[in-house]
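ok, trying the design again with the full structure, not the truncated one.
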């Protein structure tokens, strides 16, 4: 894990570079490290992938703006106000082809003004744009990619009001195109818009059309419905549940077929029914999706469910659809249609009796009602059908007359008069029907518009004896027959017309609409001109929206408004409801008092909860019943949300209620997009607010991401500084973003990122921390800790008095202060460890630093330490009291978490060191507290373990009552503090371990031994309990801030720090006898925070300082005249190579605090490579929400899973396991053994002195286990490179350790033996000659220097 300070992480990887010959880095090309430069006067467009990584596509000319985009086939279209994009001249609209990476203009006669909206019409292969322009159409234009031409829309354009189109989208069924903005439409005053409502209870699906949704289902209450075979699961076995499901898809409301079966659903009514179609609603329950079916009719309807996904077919809804609507003369046949508010009905006068006849369909009968009328009478019985009509439209109304043959009453039949009342304001229709037909007949009564049933009006069909009846009757009687009326839907939602081109009704003048216009795709009129008066044939049911908006918004003759108003966004919910938003206030009508967002339900405008929002809305995003709203508001109009709706809000359609997205954003949102379960908000803001009070929060400069499932703001992936005007979907999983960007990086994260093998060998897959880390609450900062009164004890007082008394008698040298640590303003992650919960076997990362965060559902923030689950991306806090301060070190010992830093815990004596039991989830308070002095607060910088002793180091004066300055050990067996030898003075910045079993501790800082010998690097040997100086006084230029022991070798130690006068920084090497300065001194402003040895996949040139199979990583705030600024560099013993570069939001250099790992030890030996994955958690201390940048230049790491400490012997037999004779090139980190947790996350030293080969036990449940693609095996030099080096290429070397050389082909050596290296091409085993004996063989490369 890499921790950085005040920086932003951005990844640029250059892999597959062999380090046997390191590349020469072009530092001039890299320049001073900082954020990439962008011109905020231009508009830049980015592509964003599923991980949030940003790729810049192009920028516009200065002053340009990108406001809209859409994708048609494989071509991206962008629109706005610009004259060029990239190097391509293009006027306001341009296209981008990803395969070629090229931009192109769209013709020469495109929109001559700003474009605000773009809609890619996949159905007709057209691109519609809207905005403020006059050509090629009035504010609307259409591009035909196939013809390569622009044209005006079929309705010429839109004008009036502010004359701008701001949104183009489609209705829920994609049968109409919606236009929204600030414009006026006009229709003739003699037009009457049909009430556009339909049955509000009918579940709508995206596959349904307004036509099919308007067909009334046939009642099946008394029908026989059989589903066979059915599942054995009783919750899904009753097929009756899908006829009119009472609830959502699920148990009790859905039906499953038996597993692996082809099911049949059969419906029989045993009476005559007329079925026009079947409506099937699929179930979305797992493993039961129906994908194919067929139907047939025998004595009913049979549906064969032939294809499905998962275990079996399943259904949520089954309906038999009528031709439109119906009513029967027999009341028992007028049952409630599924989801209808009421059934069809009848009324009658006179005496009517039932008459039954057999039909031509086996097993069915037909029942009708008949009445007798005296021949010669002028009056008689009447019969009225009142059909339930679901939706407005044009219908044919038929009267079904049964044939007289079956009923054997031909001689008594006559003619009847039938009157149809189609709707309020529509003229009735009167038809005479002769009922003397021998066979069943269907008589057309009426063809025209019908209004839906409502509390105010119902369509009626009334039958009585004709004015001039035909026939002579039988026995002085006529018989009139009442069977059924049938309404056949011809078209839906249109204006009424008398058939001659004029429209029925008596209204005069014109009807004006504002801001909304619907254009049905099916319209073929040629005389439509929306800039003038439109013909009523173009008027749709939803155009009522515009008419009502015109009236409610204060329109005056369609010319002016009290305030500039506009509709900026429209969405069509599957229920049929329409939601509109923008900048408006309605002062009259059904939604009077509403502002900025309103609904259209049941044919009228309807106010949303609390009358809408208190500021303009720019965008709407529909996700099921969730309506996400973005704009420049802070609350509902009534202020019901306490100011928590800043910039973004969520409206729940089902409950008509508002809810907040956290505390919102600190600026307006201009655009919303939905992808991968996340809502992207773009706009002119800088932070995701932590609370509705105050302005603190997580930096999010122009881009913020809300995770719908988590209900929380999460990292957006990429890093940007600026403001955005647009975000939209590029594909189903990627997005496009555009705006005025000051700076951007491909990948960014708040606190931490996760790296693992990617699809490409050139770079890993990068996943940011899945939760947002905030800055600390304003009333709590790490430098202003709450103090407690000291606990008095006689032992402590005695120590204090002795120190004061004896200080007057001894000359004690003054020690210089430690170099200033890298700055870590919140949110900063400074430390981390892995812990595997033994009960759940789940491995989590525990991170600490200077940050706060909100656990979902919590009302107060947690601080400084968190448990992060990389698998789920969730974050938790430690239970109990919160730390008050900053965490700088973490250490896991079993289930105990040791926490170090500069903090307190309210109500306890804790000061800089705390222990938490992760299993019991409680604080351990039995460890005596550390104490500082009045001038030096307690700071714990390092926690580690040797044997049973927890070693704590930093700045403090005593532990409990024990005086042990700056380094002390806590014996976990006796539960007591103990001093290490005679102790030291000063401050400890860093420690490392040497030896095979960490029996030697090396401490660095500003240190003096107990005898006042000043040595900023000191060594403690546990076996003899003594401290000694490493080197003599003055060999090191100043205090040491970082130390590293090379693979446990106490004769190979590296130290970095700053000179006492502060003029320069240094890196020094201890070879066992003296310190030597390495490289040229860095500038005085450099701060080195960590040194750590890292293994390489390949080798670098051999030298006497660092072995070829590893490099030293130096991290911090590094400034050098040769490479400029860097946060981490790699040192091969001769050359510094910039490795990690970080930047702050304003472009200033950042700093890396540390790289830490989970594996306590590993081997630098490259033998026996295993197939591995990769996981690296990189923690970053970020200020103002910045992320960090890693430029990996040819470094190929391999952390091998070695669990023992002895060197693995070469086994020639293993040659047969792999016939490869060359190393396969590999990207950085590709061979880290994640199967054994070789994740870089931990603060201990890398490895011990010796190495032992051991079998690796892979966890079969490890998500980062072997991927079977990364096998590498190091061969002997002769096999690997095809032969030994020439004599001239040999070089001298010495043995650092003894090696028994018992294996075949191995050379036994003793420490100090003079050798001649003949072949060093293998990074692990070198072929050498003993100069004294002349013997040759292979020896471990790590054993030579």
């Amino acid at each position: 894990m890499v921790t950085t300070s005040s920086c932003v992480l951005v990844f640029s990887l250059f892999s597959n570079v062999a380090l046997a010959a390191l590349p020469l880095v072009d530092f001039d090309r890299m320049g001073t490290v900082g954020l990439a430069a962008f011109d905020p006067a231009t508009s830049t467009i980015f592509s964003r992938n599923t991980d949030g990584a940003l790729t810049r596509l192009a920028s516009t000319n200065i002053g340009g703006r990108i406001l809209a985009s859409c994708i048609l086939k494989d071509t991206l279209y962008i629109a706005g106000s610009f004259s060029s994009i990239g190097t391509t001249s293009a006027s306001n609209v341009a296209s981008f082809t990803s395969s070629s990476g090229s931009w192109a203009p769209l013709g020469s006669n495109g929109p001559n003004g700003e474009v605000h909206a773009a809609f890619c019409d996949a159905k007709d292969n057209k691109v519609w744009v809207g905005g403020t322009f006059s050509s090629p159409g009035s504010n609307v234009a259409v591009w035909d990619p196939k013809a390569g031409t622009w044209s005006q829309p079929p309705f010429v354009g839109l004008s009036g009001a502010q004359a701008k189109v701001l949104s183009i989208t489609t209705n829920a069924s994609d049968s109409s195109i919606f236009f929204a903005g600030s414009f006026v439409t006009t229709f003739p005053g003699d037009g009457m818009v049909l009430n556009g409502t339909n049955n509000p209870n009918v579940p709508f699906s995206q596959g349904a059309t307004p036509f099919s949704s308007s067909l009334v289902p046939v009642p099946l209450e008394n029908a026989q419905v059989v589903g066979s075979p059915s599942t054995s699961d009783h919750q899904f076995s009753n097929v009756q549940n899908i006829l009119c499901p009472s609830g959502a898809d699920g148990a009790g409301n859905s039906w499953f077929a038996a597993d692996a079966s082809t099911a049949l659903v059969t419906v029989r009514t045993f009476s005559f029914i007329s079925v026009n179609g079947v409506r099937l609603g699929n179930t979305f329950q797992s493993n039961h999706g129906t994908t194919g079916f067929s139907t047939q009719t025998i004595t009913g309807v049979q549906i064969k469910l032939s294809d499905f996904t998962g275990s079996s077919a399943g259904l949520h809804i089954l309906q038999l659809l009528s031709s439109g609507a119906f009513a029967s003369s027999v009341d028992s046949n007028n049952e409630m249609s599924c989801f209808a508010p009421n059934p069809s009905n009848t009324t009658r006068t006179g005496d009517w009796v039932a008459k039954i006849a057999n039909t031509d369909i086996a097993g069915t009968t037909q029942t009708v009602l008949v009445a007798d009328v005296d021949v010669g009478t002028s009056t008689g019985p009447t019969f009225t059908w009142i059909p339930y009509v679901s939706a407005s439209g044009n219908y044919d109304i038929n009267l079904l007359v049964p044939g007289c043959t079956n009923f054997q009453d031909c001689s008594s039949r006559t003619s009847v008069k039938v009157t149809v009342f189609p709707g309020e304001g529509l003229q009735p229709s009167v038809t005479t029907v002769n009922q003397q037909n021998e066979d069943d007949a269907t008589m057309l009564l009426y063809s025209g518009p019908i209004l839906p049933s409502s509390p105010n009006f119902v369509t009626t069909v009334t039958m009585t004896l004709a004015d001039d009846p035909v026939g002579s009757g039988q026995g002085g009687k006529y018989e009139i027959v009442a069977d059924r009326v049938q309404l056949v839907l011809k078209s839906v939602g249109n204006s009424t017309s008398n058939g001659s081109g004029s429209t029925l009704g008596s209204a005069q003048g014109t009807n004006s609409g504002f801001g909304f216009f619907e254009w049905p795709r099916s319209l073929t009129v040629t005389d439509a001109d929306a800039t003038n008066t439109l013909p009523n044939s173009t008027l749709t049911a939803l155009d009522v929206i515009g008419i009502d908006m015109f009236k409610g918004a204060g329109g005056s003759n369609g010319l002016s408004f009290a305030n500039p108003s506009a509709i900026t966004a429209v969405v069509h919910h599957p229920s049929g409801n329409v939601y509109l938003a923008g900048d408006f206030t309605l002062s009259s009508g059904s939604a009077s008092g509403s502002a900025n967002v309103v609904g259209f339900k049941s044919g009228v405008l309807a106010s949303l909860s609390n009358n809408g929002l208190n500021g303009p809305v720019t965008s709407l995003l529909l996700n099921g019943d969730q309506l996400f709203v973005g704009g420049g508001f802070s609350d509902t109009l009534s202020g019901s949300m306490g100011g928590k709706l800043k910039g973004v809000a969520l409206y729940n359609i089902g409950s008509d209620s508002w809810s907040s997205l956290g505390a919102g954003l600190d600026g307006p949102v201009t655009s919303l997009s939905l992808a991968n379960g996340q809502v992207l908000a773009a706009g002119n803001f800088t932070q995701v607010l932590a609370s509705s009070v105050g302005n603190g929060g997580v930096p999010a400069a122009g881009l913020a991401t809300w995770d719908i499932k988590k209900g929380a703001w999460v990292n957006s992936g990429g890093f940007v500084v600026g403001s955005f005007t647009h975000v939209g979907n590029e594909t189903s999983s990627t997005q496009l973003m555009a705006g005025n960007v000051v700076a951007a990086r491909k990948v960014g994260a708040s606190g931490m990122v996760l790296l693992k093998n990617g699809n490409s060998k050139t770079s890993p897959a990068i996943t940011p921390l899945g939760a947002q880390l905030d800055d600390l609450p304003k009333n709590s900062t790490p430098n202003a800790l709450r103090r407690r009164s000291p606990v008095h004890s006689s032992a402590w007082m005695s120590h204090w008095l002795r120190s004061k008394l004896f200080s007057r008698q001894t000359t004690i040298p003054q020690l210089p202060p430690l170099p200033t640590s890298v700055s870590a303003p919140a949110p900063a992650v400074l430390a981390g460890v892995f812990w595997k919960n033994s009960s759940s076997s789940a491995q989590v990362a525990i991170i600490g630093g200077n940050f706060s965060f909100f656990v979902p559902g919590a009302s107060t923030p947690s601080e400084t330490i968190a448990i992060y689950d990389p698998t789920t991306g969730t974050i938790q806090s430690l239970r109990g009291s919160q730390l008050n301060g900053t965490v700088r070190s973490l250490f896991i010992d079993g289930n105990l978490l040791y926490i170090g830093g500069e903090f307190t815990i309210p109500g306890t004596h804790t000061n800089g060191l705390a222990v938490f039991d992760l299993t019991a989830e409680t604080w351990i308070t039995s460890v005596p507290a550390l104490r500082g002095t009045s001038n030096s607060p307690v700071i714990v910088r390092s926690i580690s373990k040797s044997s049973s002793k927890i070693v704590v180091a930093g700045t403090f004066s005593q532990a409990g009552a024990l005086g042990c300055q700056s380094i002390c050990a806590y014996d976990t067996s006796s539960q007591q503090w103990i001093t290490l030898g005679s102790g030291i003075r000063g401050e400890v910045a860093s420690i490392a371990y040497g030896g095979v079993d960490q029996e030697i501790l090396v401490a660095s800082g500003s240190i003096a031994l107990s005898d006042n010998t000043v040595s900023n690097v000191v060594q403690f040997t546990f076996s003899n309990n003594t401290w000694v100086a490493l080197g003599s006084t003055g060999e090191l230029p100043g205090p040491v801030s970082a130390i590293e022991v090379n693979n446990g070798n106490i004769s190979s130690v590296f130290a970095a720090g700053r000179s006492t006068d502060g003029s320069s920084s240094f890196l020094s090497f201890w070879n066992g006898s003296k310190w030597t300065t390495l490289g040229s001194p860095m500038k005085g402003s450099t701060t080195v925070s960590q040194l750590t040895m890292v293994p390489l996949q390949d080798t670098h040139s051999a030298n006497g300082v660092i072995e070829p199979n590893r490099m030293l990583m130096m991290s911090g705030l590094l400034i050098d005249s040769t490479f400029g600024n860097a946060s981490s560099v790699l040192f091969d013993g001769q050359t510094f190579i910039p490795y990690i570069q970080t930047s702050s939001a304003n472009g200033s250099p950042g700093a890396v605090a540390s790289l830490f790992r989970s594996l306590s030890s590993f081997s630098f030996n490259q033998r026996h490579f295993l197939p591995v994955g990769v996981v690296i958690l990189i923690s970053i201390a970020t200020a103002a929400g910045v992320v960090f940048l890693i430029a990996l230049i040819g470094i190929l790491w391999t952390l091998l899973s070695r669990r023992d400490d002895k060197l693995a012997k070469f086994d020639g037999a293993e040659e047969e396991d792999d016939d490869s004779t060359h190393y396969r090139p590999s990207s950085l980190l590709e061979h880290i053994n994640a199967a054994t947790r070789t994740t870089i996350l931990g603060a201990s030293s890398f490895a011990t002195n010796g190495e032992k080969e051991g079998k690796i036990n892979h966890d079969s449940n490890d998500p980062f286990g072997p991927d079977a693609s990364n096998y590498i095996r190091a061969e002997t030099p002769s096999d690997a490179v095809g032969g030994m080096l020439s004599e001239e290429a040999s070089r001298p070397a010495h043995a650092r350790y003894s090696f028994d050389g018992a294996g075949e082909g191995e050379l036994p050596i003793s420490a100090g033996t003079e050798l001649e290296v003949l072949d060093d091409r293998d990074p692990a085993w070198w072929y050498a000659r003993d100069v004294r004996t002349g013997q040759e063989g292979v020896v471990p490369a790590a054993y030579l220097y």
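Keeping the full-length input from now on. The helical segments are 27-30, 210-213, 404-407, 544-552, 794-807, 1277-1281.
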